[in-house]
Write a structure and sequence with these properties.
Elements (H helix, E strand, L loop, with lengths): L1 E6 L7 E7 L2 E8 L2 H10 L8 H5 L5 H7 L3
Antiparallel strand pairs: 1-2, 2-3
Length: about 70
């Protein structure tokens, strides 16, 4: 089991935590960012993760990344 932190975990910041088990996302949590949470919920339905580095980078457009990900 691993976790990906998207963004900086500091007081008042926006960040997301993505929990990975056996190569699949099994949980997501967002702080101060409902927009990303909406996109990350789709991640839970994917059989394969998109590029992990891109997923961790808050500058990456999540909607575009997830549209390109294999189902």
């Amino acid at each position: 089991d691993t976790e990906i932190v998207r963004g900086q975990v500091t007081a008042g910041s926006k960040f997301a935590l993505i929990q990975i088990r056996q190569g699949r996302a099994v949980g997501v949590a967002c702080m101060n960012n409902a927009r990303e949470f909406t996109a990350l919920k789709r991640l839970l339905t994917l059989a394969h993760l998109p590029d992990v580095r891109a997923l961790a980078d808050p500058a990456t457009d999540l909607r575009k990344l997830l549209q390109q990900a294999p189902g």
